[in-house]
């Protein structure tokens, strides 16, 4: 995979964006931007905010069903309902499907990128301590013995997009809610 920007290019973009804020053009440009290099808040599309929805499933309550094409995670509930969360999913070439179980859960997990990710981008850090800037966000639920996780993100604007290396990401407040509702051993279906 080819890098789109060098560190110095990103620094220059950040500086230009900061200077542009003082002009009347900035707010119009920000509304069209796909990347937020400034501290202006992002607005998540309402359809990706968590809500309880009608949901027919033969799976028992407590099961997680992930629909990657629609970019939703459903936590099956009783009486034909589910708690639905907007998610970010694997980008092209990094999607997957299958059935796993949550094998462990962590609050503010540290992150060690797998060798495959380092091979694609040797500039990424080899380790990041848990915290608000960590790519795994506030909570992580590990899926079986795979490299995949359901986790939070320091990039909430990525929810609703195909952006990850196969993990399922939620806004931090949403992953904290989901984390509190599921246990180790929870069945996870990815379609």
What does this entry look like structurally?
With 191 residues, this protein is an alpha/beta fold. It has helices at residues 7-20, 26-32, 115-120, 172-181, and strands spanning 51-54, 64-67, 72-76, 81-86, 89-90, 98-107, 139-143, 149-151, 162-164, 168-169, 187-190. Strand 2 and strand 3 (72-76) form a beta hairpin. The protein starts with 6 loop residues before the first helix and ends with a strand. The model is unreliable at 1-39 (pLDDT under 50).
How are the elements arranged and paired?
Blueprint: H1 7-20, H2 26-32, E1 51-54, E2 64-67, E3 72-76, E4 81-86, E5 89-90, E6 98-107, H3 115-120, E7 139-143, E8 149-151, E9 162-164, E10 168-169, H4 172-181, E11 187-190
Parallel strand pairs: 2-11, 5-9, 8-10
Antiparallel strand pairs: 1-4, 2-3, 3-4, 6-7, 6-11, 7-8
Helix proportion: 10-25%
Output the CATH topology: L,D-transpeptidase catalytic domain-like
Average of pLDDT: 83
Number of discrete domains: 1
> Considering the protein shown, what is the CATH homologous superfamily?
L,D-transpeptidase catalytic domain-like
CATH classification, class level? Mainly Beta
Distance between the termini: 25 Å
Strand content: 25-35%
Unreliably modeled segments: 1-39
């Amino acid at each position: 995979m080819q890098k789109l920007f060098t560190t110095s290019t990103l620094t220059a973009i950040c500086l230009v964006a900061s200077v542009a804020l003082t002009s009347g053009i900035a707010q119009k440009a920000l509304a069209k931007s796909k990347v937020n290099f400034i501290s202006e808040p992002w607005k998540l599309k309402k359809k990706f905010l968590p809500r309880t929805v009608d949901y027919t499933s033969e799976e028992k309550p407590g099961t997680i069903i992930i629909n990657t094409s629609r970019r939703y995670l459903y936590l099956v509930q009783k009486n034909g309902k589910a708690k639905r969360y907007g998610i970010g999913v694997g980008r092209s070439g990094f999607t997957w499907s299958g059935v796993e179980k949550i094998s462990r859960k962590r609050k503010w997990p540290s992150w060690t990128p797998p060798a495959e990710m380092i091979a694609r981008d040797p500039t990424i850090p080899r380790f990041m301590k848990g915290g608000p800037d960590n790519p795994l966000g506030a909570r992580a639920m590990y899926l079986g013995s795979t490299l995949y996780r359901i986790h939070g993100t320091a990039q909430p604007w990525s929810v609703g997009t195909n952006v990850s290396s196969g993990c399922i990401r939620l806004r931090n407040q949403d992953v904290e809610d989901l984390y509190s509702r599921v246990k180790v051993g929870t069945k996870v279906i990815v379609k």
